[in-house]
Write a structure and sequence with these properties.
- The protein is α/β, with parallel strands linked by helices.
- The chain folds into two domains: 13-156, 5'-nuclease (Rossmann fold); 166-173 and 250-450, 3-Layer(aba) Sandwich (Rossmann fold), CATH 3.40.50.
- It has helices at 19-24, 41-50, 56-71, 106-109, 115-129, 142-150, 181-190, 245-255, 272-282, 311-330, 338-348, 357-360, 380-387, 416-424, 442-450; strands spanning 13-17, 36-40, 82-83, 91-95, 134-138, 155-156, 173-176, 192-193, 208-212, 217-223, 228-231, 261-266, 289-294, 352-356, 368-372, 395-400, 430-435.
- It has a six-stranded mixed beta sheet.
- Helix 2 (41-50) crosses helix 3 (56-71), helix 9 crosses helix 10 and helix 13 (380-387) crosses helix 14 (416-424).
- The longest helix has 20 residues, at 311-330.
């Protein structure tokens, strides 16, 4: 609903917000135009459980409760409709009724007094009290939306931050056929050629190209600084050789000092994290530290506290894939080689740090390369928070697979990585590459294609 063009239906609506919407975006209440908003008291109870901690959900909960406190400063009660600040904004109130109506009671229908059913009952009560208005439950929880619809309560996802057509998501590279042979020869001989080698509509900043003529081909990218096409070679990075054009593009993007933000997207086995880490190690002298982080997504949605051992033991299972990539790079060399020993020294001296994302949030990101793995498990707000921490001489690399979401309230359209790719394409400081060909093994490729 948020920030979309108004439809022909001009009826004023009341949107009932679920906790998942607030945790996803604490500013959600500002994005419903002139319509009114109802917050079930159960949502405030759930937000109270999230107020302590350093994760982004804790931040979102605290910010929203502060917003409500300020909103209610000049009002006697949140049970009354309070005007939201801003032109053409609606009103907001807290709904106390969690018992539904005599005709419809979600707790009785589903035979369970869980919080979701209290939220459904709040929506039912709002619907009963406002028969002249359309009442809609907004939730990131698919099951809650389905339950609402089964009770004849209209429900929808919170759409702010969602990519509208995921099938048309920017890939970062294009194949151009029928390129003039002399242009390809010029790329190889001079290292660059004029932009007129490709159609004008295909020109995009930091975009990559596979150029093909009748007899030859070349890899290139558009340099927005010099406004020309430049040749991209299949340059190895710290012992890792690119196996296809997309991997060569990804290595080039990470190594380019003018590109400060890189995203690499692809299915399992395409080499996202490996390429990002190897290319970062190649330019280790340009930065004081390398941080490799990933969000913690607890198994079965349980907090990591239920796992045995100290904090390091609890986190090891989540960090192991990152160590696997580091070991793979290290094993490209003999144990006596300087490049092999250098990785061990960097880890021991904390020049290379592998850590959960929650441990890195809030730090000053200056003179470092920051690789964020599994970025598809971040919200758009989390991605924005990370990028906004960038200081001098900072490079940030996001990697992930937008079709492999591990968090319950995100999908391929609403996760932070898709949002980043969609919103920042064609910017001077940003480059993106979608890796399409699996390079892990023939068996892994078979699984990705047929299973």
């Amino acid at each position: 609903m948020a920030k979309e063009k108004k439809s022909r239906d001009t009826q004023k609506k009341i949107f009932v917000l679920d906790t998942s919407v607030i945790i996803y975006d604490h500013n959600a209440v500002k994005n419903f135009e002139e319509h009114d908003l109802a917050i079930p008291i159960t949502v405030l109870e759930e937000l109270d459980n999230f107020k302590k901690g350093n994760d982004i959900k804790n931040f979102e909960a605290r910010e929203f409760t502060r917003f409500l406190d300020e909103l209610a400063a000049d009002s006697a009660s949140l049970q009354d409709w309070i005007q939201l600040e801003g032109r053409d904004k609606g009103k907001l109130k807290v709904i106390m009724n969690t018992h539904g109506t005599k005709e419809t009671d979600a707790e009785k229908i589903f035979d369970d007094r869980k919080n979701d059913h209290k939220i459904l009952n709040a929506a039912i009560s709002v619907q009963a009290e406002n028969p002249d208005k359309k009442v809609i439950l907004v939730s990131k929880d698919i099951n809650l939306r389905l339950k609402a619809k089964s009770l004849n309560i209209p429900s929808e996802d919170y759409n702010t931050g969602k990519v509208k057509d995921i099938d048309l998501l920017y890939t970062g590279h294009t194949t151009i056929e029928n390129v003039a042979p002399e242009k390809i020869n010029e790329l190889y001989e001079k290292g660059y050629c004029d932009i007129d080698a490709i159609p004008e509509q295909d020109v995009s900043k930091n975009h990559y190209y596979i150029l093909k003529s009748v007899k030859s081909s070349a890899l290139a990218y558009y340099n927005p600084v010099d406004k020309r096409l430049e040749h991209v070679g299949k340059t190895p990075a710290y012992g890792i050789k690119p196996r296809n054009a997309e991997q060569a593009f990804a290595i080039h993007a990470v190594l380019d000092p003018h590109i400060k933000l890189v995203s690499i997207q692809g299915v399992a086995g395409t080499g996202k994290t490996l390429i990002a880490l190897a290319a970062t190690l190649e330019q280790r002298k340009d930065f004081k530290q390398i941080f490799l982080a990933r969000p913690i997504v607890p198994l079965s949605n349980k907090d990591i506290g239920y796992l045995p051992g100290d904090i390091k033991s609890k986190l090891n299972p989540y960090m192991e894939p990152l160590f696997d990539n580091l070991k793979f790079i290290q094993n490209q060399f003999n144990e006596t080689d300087q490049d092999y020993q250098r990785i061990t020294d960097m880890v021991n001296k904390e020049k290379l740090v592998i850590t959960p994302l929650a441990y890195i949030r809030g730090r000053s990101l200056s003179n470092i390369v920051f690789i964020v793995d599994e970025a598809q498990n971040l919200t758009p707000h989390e991605v924005k928070t990370i990028i906004s921490r960038a200081g001098e001489n900072c490079k940030i690399i996001f990697t992930g697979d937008i079709f492999q979401i591990d968090t319950p309230y995100l999908d391929s359209e609403s996760n932070g990585l898709s949002y980043l790719i969609d919103r920042l394409k064609n910017q001077d400081l940003y480059a993106h590459i979608t890796l399409e060909k699996g390079e892990r093994s023939e068996l892994a490729n078979l699984a990705n294609e047929l299973l």
